[in-house]
Fold each of these.
Amino acid sequence: MKIVRLAEIAGDILERRSKPVKPRTGEGNATKYFGEAKFKVTDQCTRCGTCAGGCPAGNIAVDDSVKFGNACENCFACVNLCPAHAIYSSRAILKRRQYRNPVISVNEIAAVNERRENLSQP
Ligand code: SF4
Ligand code: SF4
């Protein structure tokens, strides 16, 4: 990451500046700082739809393939929720462990996202 961006972030924290995150606008705080991630999926994808259900921005559509729109908020929920560990923006991501809050199910996340009620993963 560029030093200038770190300084900007540090300044925002020190000055306690805040900017409300507006879901589904593609202009969340992380995107403001880091730019929008460009995701791809590997052949391990089973098209289960978990990523679409877990995306707070409604930025993913799954049919015969997985398609990402232009409203990504850089939360990386899709990367961490994918049961096949198939989503990546850089190959290094595929070597990292995923994390998911163990007390919240994918269905609960999807319900919050007002996406779908029944995903294939509990
Ligand atoms: S969660 Fe993973 S396996 Fe399921 S559709 Fe998305 S990319 Fe494919
Ligand atoms: S990182 Fe993934 S889950 Fe998060 S907003 Fe972007 S596409 Fe959606």
Amino acid sequence: MAGSGSPRSSRHGSRRGSRHDSPRNSARSHFRRLALSKVYALLEPGPVLLLTTFHKGKANVMTMSWQTPMDFEPPLVGCVISNRDFSFTALKASRECVLAVPDAAMASKVVACGNHSGSTVDKFVRFGLTPQPAALVAAPLIAECFANLECRVVDTRFVNRYSFFVLEVVTAWVERGNTEPQTLHHRGKGLFMLSGENIRLPSKMK
Ligand SMILES: Cc1cc2nc3c(=O)[nH]c(=O)nc-3n(C[C@H](O)[C@H](O)[C@H](O)COP(=O)(O)O)c2cc1C
């Protein structure tokens, strides 16, 4: 599998062939083994979002970082929302939500929304978040967030197995004049990274 000619072995061409320096052994000295439970922290996509729902007359908000873009237009977003979360039931039943994008200044409120459940707390009141009516869905926008995406659930085929919802963004709002918001990215266990410097490269990606 790691035989000669693979990109990995050719990069170490002069040392190839020695049993002692086989790719597997050199990997062992260069890398340390990472606990499988920590893998997610390497891949956390971010930014950390707030997801709002409205169900049975009650608005709720939870923190969510396991999301991934799935298509350009209409924009599709895949989200993992645990079935232990109050929001799971609301989203499954109402099939609507808002993905609100907070900036770094909201970090402590964002974490608080992830540490409490809407089953016992009105998080809008407790953490000073302002719900605003959305245009197309019953779930509220969050006034303090620099972007708000109104979404409908369009695919639930992976919900029972993976708690994975596919959302379509039906309307998107961004704060006027806020051109360089600093987003929050989860690195696991209470560690967060703030977005920083931009660099421009000739990428063919849209
Ligand atoms: C930084 C951060 C990221 C989180 N990401 C997710 C996530 O992607 N999916 C998820 O199900 N829960 C996630 N959580 C946990 C939920 O936000 C948490 O269980 C919350 O209490 C659920 O609220 P609810 O019961 O009101 O729905 C995250 C929490 C934090 C602090």
